[in-house]
């Protein structure tokens, strides 16, 4: 009986320690990725930066492609853990919204929050793509999944009755997919110096003009 109580007591402590180690590894990988680029960052570098043994990196998060996937996923969610799209706070707020305008405003704000975390990772990954096909493949999978999710978002917008007449599901999804990508953010915020608030309003306004009926219903 004593050993059973001991295991029950220590299990949460072990779990918390494992999560702390995982966060340290991902934080180290993120810093090195942004500073050096993905192709120039080795697993040994990540272990040294995180202050753990190399075997611990493999056991906790896996190899480089798995680490990259986790970095992208946690950048999207803004949490230490990967969650499905339907579990994300902004997705739940969109699902609760009743008009197309509300939905687009919520998503435009979410895009800025996501790109603050995502864009530096994408920028470093983009430079290394030709040298690291496995990493590029991971990013392409994420991008394809995002496009599928934009199809679901297009369906939700259509159900409000607020979309402009004549727009296909594919056209709506493509517009959502384009402006939720890192590239426009990097160009306008990174290169042109736009503020995050300016970028958020521009994304919302662009989607509203392209996708929604105007005040006359056209």
Account of the protein in words:
The protein is 76% helix and 0% strand. It has helices at residues 2-36, 43-50, 54-60, 64-77, 89-96, 100-128, 133-160, 169-179, 182-191, 196-211. Helix 6 (100-128) runs antiparallel to helix 7 and helix 6 crosses helix 10 (196-211). The protein is elongated.
How would you describe the shape? elongated
The amount of helix comes to over 70%
Return the average pLDDT rounded to an integer.
85
Q: Low-confidence stretches at least 5 residues in length (pLDDT < 50)?
A: none
Number of helices: 10
By DSSP, the count of extended strands is: 0
Order of helices and strands: HHHHHHHHHH
Question: What structural class do helix, strand and pairing data support?
Answer: mainly alpha
Radius of gyration: 21 Å
Head-to-tail CA distance between termini? 73 Å
Strand content: under 5%
Note the main sheet.
Answer: none
How would the blueprint of this fold be written?
Layout: H1 2-36, H2 43-50, H3 54-60, H4 64-77, H5 89-96, H6 100-128, H7 133-160, H8 169-179, H9 182-191, H10 196-211
């Amino acid at each position: 009986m004593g050993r059973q109580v001991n295991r029950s007591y220590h299990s949460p402590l072990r779990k918390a320690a494992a999560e702390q180690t995982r966060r340290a590894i991902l934080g180290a990988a993120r810093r090195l990725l942004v500073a050096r680029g993905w192709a120039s960052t080795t697993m040994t570098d990540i272990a040294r930066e995180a202050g753990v043994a190399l075997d611990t990196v493999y056991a906790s998060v896996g190899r480089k492609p798995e680490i990259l996937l986790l970095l992208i996923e946690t950048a999207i969610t803004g949490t230490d853990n990967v969650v499905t799209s339907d579990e994300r706070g902004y997705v739940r707020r969109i699902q609760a919204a009743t008009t197309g305008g509300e939905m687009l405003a919520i998503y435009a704000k979410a895009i800025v929050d996501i790109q603050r975390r995502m864009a530096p990772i994408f920028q470093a990954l983009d430079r290394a793509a030709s040298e690291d096909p496995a990493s590029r493949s991971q990013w392409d999978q994420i991008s394809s999944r995002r496009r599928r999710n934009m199809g679901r978002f297009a369906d939700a917008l259509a159900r409000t009755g607020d979309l402009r007449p004549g727009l296909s599901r594919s056209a709506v999804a493509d517009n959502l997919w384009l402006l939720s990508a890192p590239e426009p953010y990097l160009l306008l915020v990174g290169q042109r110096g736009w503020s995050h608030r300016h970028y958020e309003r521009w994304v919302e306004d662009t989607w509203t003009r392209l996708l929604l009926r105007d005040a006359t219903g056209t």
